[in-house]
Amino acid sequence: MIQNFDPIGIAARNLKECLLLQARFMTPRNELVEKIIEAHMVELEKHNIPSIAKTLNEPIEKVVEAQKIIHEFEPRPGSIFTESETQYITPDIYINKVGAQYVISMNDDGIPRLRVSNYYKSIVQKEAAANKEAGTPGGGQAKEYVQDKLRAAMWLIRSIQNRQKTIFKVTEAILARQKDFFEKGTQHLKPMVLKDIAADVGMHESTISRVTTNKYVHTPVGTFELKYFFNSSISAGDGGEALASSAVKERIKQVITREDPKKPLSDQQIVDLLLKENIDIARRTVAKYREMLGLLPSSKRKRAF
Q1: Which residue ranges form the domains of the chain, and what is each CATH number?
Q2: Percent of the chain having pLDDT more than 70?
Q3: CA distance 70 to 9
Q4: Using the 8-state DSSP alphabet, how is residue 218 labeled?
């Protein structure tokens, strides 16, 4: 009954049910749209249209049309009642685990598919052929103009392709260094700086910085900006392997989340607890990380209960 209320999808239990409710209220109903939502959301998310078409034995054109309809549905129908606009992130790279291996794939949907027009190529070729036949070398201003623009177009296309290749190589290098993170989670993130990846891929640090800014990767453990993986190091108390600052922040967050609300831990107590785990960190650093996490000091946490 509640699921019949407007806006359609408002009482759905998950995204799939939300989209399916909207599909069923279409006039006329579209059976293909409903089938895709019911059984092929993963392929749809990856824009794997050929796979969906093959499985459902439908023409690719019909699946593309169904995809367009689904994209018009509202994934958060309750958002019309809120004033703030949610910012969605579309990953630029996907890291998926296939068997025991991790596979990297680029999301090229946001990349313009550019190619040089055959029309302008033919202008240069025809003029060159005409000049050869007439026995006159070179060409006129029109030919030089078109050739100049063709070179600029080819340079732009190569630049876009090279940028994608660079992002792929950088992601490969990050994956190789942070394998434990992808296997076990945030607490296993290792210290890593731009210089490390620059050395791995044979590029300048500034290049690594540019291609990791505002670039997001979807992984089995969540979606992260590529810059997230660059961390300063925190020394281990027993002289062992250093820890990434993000991993230490995550541990501090866990400690505070699990503490007795009637007896919250002071920053010094957190320092002592972490030292038992071979994490050597100063009290002021704990306070700094706690504030960065948006967590109150112990005195104010105690008053909150």
Answers
A1: 2-81 (no CATH), 118-229 (no CATH), 233-303 (1.10.10.60)
A2: 83
A3: 13
A4: E
Cα separation, 133 vs 193, in Å, equals 61
pTM of the model: 0.56
Q: For 246, left (φ over 0), alpha (ψ -120 to 50), or beta?
A: alpha
| Residue 138 in tokens | 């070179």
Report the C-alpha gap between 241 and 235 in whole angstroms: 7
With contact defined as beta carbons under 8 Å apart, do 188 and 201 qualify?
A: no
For 296: left if phi > 0, alpha if psi spans -120 to 50, otherwise beta; the answer is beta
Q: What 3 state SS string does 229-250 have?
A: HCECEECECCCCCCEEHHHHHH
CA dihedral of residues 226, 229, 232, 235 (deg, nearest 10): 180
CA separation for the pair 217, 89 (Å, rounded) = 10
- The pair of structure tokens assigned to 45 is 């998310």
- Distance (Å, rounded) from C-alpha 91 to C-alpha 106? 9
| 116 DSSP 8-state letter | -
Report the distance separating Cα 159 and Cα 296, nearest Å. Answer: 47
H-type alpha helices, the chain: 15-24, 31-39, 41-45, 49-56, 60-71, 118-134, 141-177, 179-184, 194-201, 205-212, 245-258, 267-276, 283-292, 298-303
Residue among 29, 30, 21 nearest 1 (CA):
21
Look up residue 250 and give its two tokens.
């995550």
Q: What is the largest CA-CA distance in the chain?
A: 96
Alpha-carbon distance values, 272 to 189, 254, 279, 284 (Å): 22, 15, 9, 13
One-letter amino acid at 8 equals I
Q: What is the pLDDT of residues 10-34, one digit of tens each?
A: 667 788 888 888 888 887 888 899 9
Report CA-CA distances (Å) from 123 to 116, 119, 146.
12, 7, 8
